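Entries read sequence, tokenised fold; example below:

***
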Amino acid sequence: MKLNPILASLMFIGPLFGQSERLVKEVRHELVMLPYYGVFDNLAYRVDGDRVTLFGQVVKPTLKSDAENVVKRIEGVSHVQNEIEVLPLSPNDDRLRTRVYRAIYSKAPLQRYSMMAVPPIHIIIKNGNVTLVGVVANEGDKNIANIAANGVSGVFSVKNELQVEK
């Protein structure tokens, strides 16, 4: 299954056909508009006819349920399967989120991304392991983010899943 970037780290998974194209746009819009969706969350989805499957990782359990609820209310959606993972509570991971965010967005070439409403480099941290997801403008930005995250003390590993715009 191929991943296609929609906006920042919000990903759509799967092909587009007729009515599904409208649903893809509406689901994307509703998820992006969630008030607590931020740089430490990763949302993805798949539309199969009138069925929507949600994927990703979130810091707050309310975001998982909010995402499901807004998608359920979209006209034409008959079923929502919510496979969003709520990341475990961890003071250490919270500290690492702040440190990794500062390390990445303090780099001059990456500062332009921090000015966006939802910065496109999303930082997912689970048990000290960092995953970078989202979309950047070029390979250099992808590498700078990876190097910055790897340089943070306390990070066990960094998985760089950033995609480069085409």
Notes: The CA atoms of residues 93 and 127 lie 6 Å apart.
